[in-house]
Amino acid sequence: MAAAGATTAHRTYSFKVVLLGEGCVGKTSLVLRYCENKFNDKHITTLQASFLTKKLNITGKRVNLAIWDTAGQERFHALGPIYYRDSNGAILVYDITDEDSFQKVKNWVKELRKMLGNEICLCIVGNKIDLEKERHVSVEEAEAYAESVGAKHYHTSAKLNKGIEEMFLDLCKRMMETAQVEERSKGNGTSHASTGRRGVQIIDDEPQAATAAGGCCSSG
Amino acid sequence: MSSKTERRGIYVDQAALLCKKGCGFFGNSAWGGFCSKCWREVNQKDRAKQIEEDHALAERLQREEEATYAGSNAGAQSGNSSTQLSKPEEKRNSQKPLTVPAGKKFFSTLAKTTLGRDVNVPSQPAPTTSISQQPVVEPDQATRQFIDFLKTVQKPGRDIFKQCHSFCHSVAYKKDLGAEDLSESVQDFYQNLSDRLHTVYKGSPERIEVIMDEVEKYITLQLYEQAFCPESADDEVKDLAIQKRIRALHWVTVQMLCAPLKEEIPAVSDSLDKAITDVIEMDSKRVPRDKLGYVTRCSKHIFSAIKRSKREAASADDFLPALIYVVLKANPPRLQSNIQYITRFCNPRRLMSGEDGYYFTNLCCAIAFIEKLDAQSLNLSPEEFELYMSDQASPDRPQAPGISFSSSSSSRSGPRADRPENDLIDWGDGVEASVQDVLDGLHLDSCTPSTSAIDSDNVDSEGLPPPLQPQVFAG
């Protein structure tokens, strides 16, 4: 922060958060609930729930959250890296009544850690706690797993609007911390570079990422 | 990338490049084969008006581009700014002594781009296609719009223009710069300029973003020919590969992709048509941001198609398959080139986090999926997939969407594979039967089947005209 100097005072954090999880775990309901406070609304006016933004103000700092939904079907699994490159956070959603969807989350976590290391903040979310009776993923197991991979675990219900706000807020705070740590370390090294691309993008990574985009699409 | 040297080496006789009037200067296809001086004489009238306009503009602006006119304008104004541009000016002169002198005076604002480009005429003998494709006026307009915009920026505007201008020039000289290197230097330039705007001019982030958008527009318009589908990269090969691939996949249906689209609803197919048009239209734009705009428009049409089919907001689970379907139906021209161009020259932040970036990412995903698509990803058996790919069978009847819909909604694995075969057998039986009918009918009429030999001489059948005799015409 110190290195960013004058620009830091009015800075706005821009975070990209990807939403991962099998189909039918309620990813869409989760974000729609969070961004529009709607659930299964018959009169929904939103055209789409795949890209949503939310503006927050956390301890006086402005945060722009861009939430990227990803296609959860198995056949699109290989496309994951194209989606989550350069993201600051990932929300991995599973359905507590569906053991399989929790296994999928584990796969995602492995992949994310491999590709993005520890710079990405992970949230593992057990959704549909309104269906507690039909639970198939034990709380202990899920929380133990989350801890073992350095992620936070949350229980939510999009239907009852439980736990969602908290989860996003917590995620934002963690992303801000990560961003500040990064900035500080950058400030020690190359003091000049950090002011440029606003937000928390890592400057050195960006051109690479840009070319990687082409690589992904064109490699075959 | 390694191929750039040999691809460039098309040799054309020096004489073919000289001015048509034979004055000894090099000609230029953009100038109708004349050198700049003779071209001026030929085109004096047409250009006079434009020059006047340009001069008026220049006088109004009081900015450093006046230095470009300084020669023709007798330095009437711009005492302070003429020095600012002297450096690129010198550089330009020293690098191409033959073509510049007349052109510089003559083309005024236009000179910025055309002169930058014609550097390659002596060094790169074949008149580049880029010059002939390019309407010469367009960069001029771009420059003008850019200047008009910068007027609203007040003080930093002058500096921004100076930087952009000299950057374009410095890049234009490096004709053999690889695509990635060019991208890198453009991105570095964006980065440095926005840094500068942040630190020196202390503009609000929103304002700087707007400025950077205009900068991006100007730079990419100036460098378009060099930057889009450059010879040094294999973009073109990839374009053809994906085009061929999509063509081979023409049989893929909405149902195979599990896209929630009900094409039988007119409003849905309407939206899909619009989406297809938009993704094709992307190729017609030159500025990365405009191209992205078309991707976004395409996506919005897809969303409304999904919404109409499904009656709820589209999630990514719905959107991606639908987008893949649209890309398959559209087979957008120069798809890879466009993707590469946008990735290389677009403001990175727009691609990484903005809404446009999201749709663009989805488009990249769609392409990646299409490239790697196999039987499994369409829920087909490998045999079926092979059959369709080799065009021996088609699950889709474009003329009768009703058939394809109802048939594919039934179980796809077992009986469906035999369907075309069965069809063929049925059809064969049908034809046989009808031929038999016809033959039976004939049989009644011609109960005396006389073996008529048409060619024989003794044709006495009534009603037949006599056979034509060959006749010889003299002369």
Structure described in brief:
With 220 residues, chain A is α/β, with parallel strands linked by helices.
Structure description:
Chain A: One of its GO terms (biological process) is Rab protein signal transduction. Chain A: It holds the Pfam family Ras. The complex is a heterodimer of chains A (220) and B (475). Chain A has six helices and six strands. Chain A has a single domain (12-182), classed as Rossmann fold, CATH 3.40.50.300. A six-stranded mixed β-sheet of chain A has the order 2-3-1-4-5-6, with helices on both faces. Chain A has 220 residues and is an alpha/beta fold. The longest helix of chain A has 26 residues, at 164-189. In chain A, α3 links the parallel β4 (89-95) and β5. By secondary structure, chain B is an all-alpha fold. Among the domains of chain B are: 139-227, Serum Albumin, Chain A, Domain 1, CATH 1.10.246; 234-382, Glutathione S-transferase Yfyf (Class Pi), Chain A, domain 2 (Up-down Bundle), CATH 1.20.1050.80. In chain B, 67% of the residues lie in helices and 0% in strands. Chain B contains 24 helices and no strands. Chain B has helices at 4-8, 14-17, 36-42, 44-61, 66-73, 86-95, 100-118, 120-123, 129-133, 137-151, 155-173, 179-201, 205-227, 235-248, 254-257, 266-281, 288-310, 316-330, 335-345, 348-353, 355-372, 382-389, 401-409, 414-445. The longest helix of chain B has 32 residues, at 414-445. The model of chain B is unreliable at 1-9, 71-137 and 397-417 (pLDDT under 50). The interface between A and B is large, with 54 and 53 residues.
